[in-house]
Amino acid sequence: MSTIHEVREAIAAKKASAREITADYFKRIAARNGELNAYLTLSEERAYKQADRVDAQAAAGKPLGPLAGVPIAVKDVISTRGIRTTCSSKILTNYLPPYDATAVARLEAAGAVILGKTNCDEFAMGSSNENSAYGNVQNPAAPGCVPGGSSGGSAAAVAADLAVAALGTDTGGSIRQPGSFCGIPAMMGSYGRVSRYGLIAFASSLDRIGPFAQNVADVAAVLKVMAGRDANDSTSTTAPVEDYSAALNRPVKGMKIGIAKEYFGTGMHPGVREKVDAGIELLRKLGCRSQEIHLPHTDYAIATYYIIATAEASSNLARYDGVRYGPRAEADALTAMYRKTRGAGFGPEVKRRIVLGTYVLSAGYYDAYYLKGQKVRTLIAEDFRKAFLEVDAIVTPTSPVPPFQIGERVDDPLEMYLADIYTVTGSLAGLPGISVPCGKIADKLPVGLQILGPAFREAQVLQLAHAFEQAGGASV
Amino acid sequence: MKISREDVLRVAELAYLDLSEEELEKYRAQLDDILEYIGKLNELDTREVPPMAQVLADDQTADATLREDLVVPCAVADEVLGHAPDSEPPYFRVPKVIER
Lengths: 476, 100
Description:
The complex is a heterodimer. Chain A is α/β, with parallel strands linked by helices.
């Protein structure tokens, strides 16, 4: 039972109980997690309690929620009450959140079984899951390769059938890129679509929670359950949540898809290019009309993103000081305690970003960097707004490079940052975006096709992604 | 060179971050590269462009984040104090603040 449909059908037909399905997943996790390191913490007690609850409801003939009995993994930057939540950092090594994130609470209210917390880059900062304080994650779809990041553990868990679906977070590409690297669909809704309450903050104007799943229909189902206004997150939108599942089979014939020339220049790996071109050709065969669009400020997106995201991170991570949670370093004075605790508790990428973020916000530099970055962000968002007057969706590669070997790219942070080029733009503009599997280079390295839509048009994005998948997009 | 060792030290102090000598030089060099790259934003004339602090949905205005100032019970204090590195409820205990 790998998909939501299969789980629900099995429970409804009494072929398997929720408890049996849950036990099955834990068995598979026990067999493979040592090798993959996708999970950091398992929540067996909570999972079985929920499974038993679902089984009792089924036995009593009561109606079951849309995710009843569905085993789901949660990225370790998302709060789960009473279950260790580390953000893959040493500074939160023993942190037990006193509350659930809204997204988690909504999944459980719909019947989902939370299996555990997944590995990721520390505080969601990274593109390969090599910045975790708890070890690397193996890519189940490409042995020896990184699963992508920062939500590498969640992507790997779903790709290895160790969860039916998983939650990740996306700030600059951290859901879409690992989805692409692991060969599974992965989506972020628009900024404000899913509540950030309980998401341990990295960059508050960019962070989003979103699903990985085995297919686009399941991505739609999980997103629908989580989406919607939350009084606890004032940045969550009051815009109504559409029935994403109902929208999936809407015809795509005649949909206008934009191909931005700035995304198809020289930086792309030729194998990626070949697969993405084939994917676009498939969309044309489905009746979509492609046209060239311009996103003239694309070249400035990485610089803009790394100013804004690190600035916000330096502020959000100021709270980790050893006072209220996490391990505390010994010191005679308060500020020495802060400095030692943080010096010992944060990994190198986190420190690098805190230093950069603090620098761009500091007196004398604020205007030149942070304010400038915010202005260029306006220009980037405006590029998209104009483009969406002409097209219904924008199609790009998810990543300019295919999954790379673990350890291959750890020496040059700037080079790693530059590979985020196709994903940071959608993040800055607040748009919804999905990555869908789009073939494999040499039958080995998964490639992803990214579909971006106008703000709050998740249904449109999902409809196109679903049609692409059903037409065999994964094997172009 | 855009960023000096002193710059990194100053910033590390602002961010309450203890860095070793090795870290200091490694980050200085890497940040130098990154700041050099970020400088390309100066190619753009943004004098008339408003800054975007956050993405707002069409239905949101900048003051959409306000609500009635009502006090609501928050029942997690005991749990939070129970998990703290050093607490004596209802206080978190920390080393003393020393006047500089």
